Amino acid sequence: xxxxxxxxxxxxxxxxxxxxxxxxxxxxxxxxxxxxxxxxxxxxxxxxxxxxxxxxxxxxxxxxxxxxxxxxxxxxxxxxxxxxxxxxxxxxxxxxxxxxxxxxxxxxxxxxxxxxxxxxxxxxxxxxxxxxxxxxxxxxxxxxxxxxxxxxxxxxxxxxxxxxxxxxxxxxxxxxxxxxxxxxxxxxxxxxxxxxxxxxxxxxxxxxxxxxxxxxxxxxxxxxxxxxxxxxxxxxxxxxxxxxxxxxxxxxxxxxxxxxxxxxxxx
Length: 267
Prior knowledge:
This protein is of the alpha+beta class. 62% of the residues lie in helices and 8% in strands.
């Protein structure tokens, strides 16, 4: 939205580069096979499907890159469908016996570089997939809840921290009801609690001025039994008295750690 673009800070080139690297490494097999399909078929004017899929990729990348306040990795999922279809075409082409060898004799050096680079990308992704399978085997294929938690924690340190922070919510003596987390949404998943209000707390830095008032209003209506403020958001929330006054009036601090602060409803 125009106001987001003009009023909020830009993400920075570092996040853009991290997102591109994430996309390339995670989607390497599809990108490689898509390159093969595009090279072999795009010159055929009657191949409308390939032209449209390539257009989707171009427009999709433009849409992602114009969102200067975001540039998050998940935005690249917008390209999953066209990459998947193009990769299917590329796989079909290389699966036909002798087709690649026959076309290879007629390719120029530019075409050979494109094809070989695509194949190398697919092979390198195979190494990555093998490493992931070995890691999964190391944790007994995550068949038990303990192994699943260990495997998740291996993949991302966020799981271990969130699991520890939400331990009291899984105890039978904790007060039942929905919670609100100003921070990592994994807290809902790992605690088994619902989000008390519609406004999510994972992107508070993107709230416009009037939305802070809306956040206060929604919290006042729902009065979640527990409220968590992540360390990353403590300073941001302190800049909005409408929220800090609400917390001070209706909540008391339960605990504090390097991850954030837990509050319980005292009304």
